[in-house]
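Readers of this paper often ask what the protein records in our data store actually look like. This encoding replaces a full spatial description with a residue-level series of whole-number codes. For reference, a complete record is included directly beneath this paragraph.
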Amino acid sequence: MNFSSINIIESETDSLYLSSRNDDWNTREGDVRQKILKMTQQKQNISSIYRDCLRSMIHEFSDIVIFAENETASDVKVIHANQERAIAKIHQENNIILPIISISQVVSENADNRRRYKSLLIHEKVWNEETQRATRVLSLAPRAITIQYDIYIWSKYKSDLDQISEQIRLKFNPDLIVNVNSTVTSNAYLNEESDSGSSIAPDKEERLLQKSFRVILETYIDSPRFLVTKTGKITEFNAEVSFLKPNNKTKPSN
């Protein structure tokens, strides 16, 4: 075989490769990807991920209690407020019973070390209780983000502050699994903690103790999800999820 024939074979191979259907996504998976991409662009992509994350964070700390000297448990109220607003509510409203926990979102940023390619298809199987069958659900790759939260504890007594701090630390071992919604399971990490707030109160004012925790939540902004039927038809997929408040009123044995 001479060099001219080799060149002809190589050129034919190149032409075959260049005409491959995979390069144009002109395959079954490529067609589905293009349809989902088009349907995603046509939707108003508001996933309310920040609201859902905040709601889930409040839920995760809603089972914290304190035990009095007579060993009766009392729930610790969890509110959404930054430091300044929480202080104002404590001093202005007479119906707030200490201790309380306040949670506020500080900042969010992209997590490039966890990101995926935009064109990547995510394949899922979701069980349908009505039809008693598993359904196929597809979506584009989600956007990875990191959200920082400040968790403040407000208390009159150091013993209550210690009880709440202990329960918060026990939740991170080393991370806290946060179920944001039916599709996103996130990991929260305890980054740092600090004591702030004076233990010495001015005349005619009650003492107010404060402790803060910085929590880092690693989560994703979900792309719209679509249901693929047996006939190949692609339709919008909706799912709902609800949370139950846990019970933490059983004091551990000594």
In short: The mean pLDDT is 78.
